[in-house]
Amino acid sequence: MGMDRPGIEGHFASLPDPRVDRTKRHQLVDIVVIAILAVISGADGWDDIVDFADVREAWLRSFLELPNGIPCADTFRRVFNALDPREFGRCFASYVAELAGHVDGKLVCIDGKTMRRTFARERGEGALHMVSAWMAENAVVLGQIAVAAKSNEIPAIPALLALIDVQGATVTIDAAGCQREIAATIVDKGADYVLALKGNQTLLHEEVALYFDDALASGAALSHAVSVDKGHGRIETRRVWASVDLGWMSERKRWKGLRSLVMVERERQVGAETSTERAYFISSHELNAERAGAMVRGHWSIENGLHWVLDVVFHEDHSRIRDRRGAQNFALLRKLALMLLKNETSRPGKSIASKRKRAGWDHDYLFQVLAAAQPGHAEQ
Question: Is the pTM of this model over 0.85?
Answer without folding.
Answer: yes
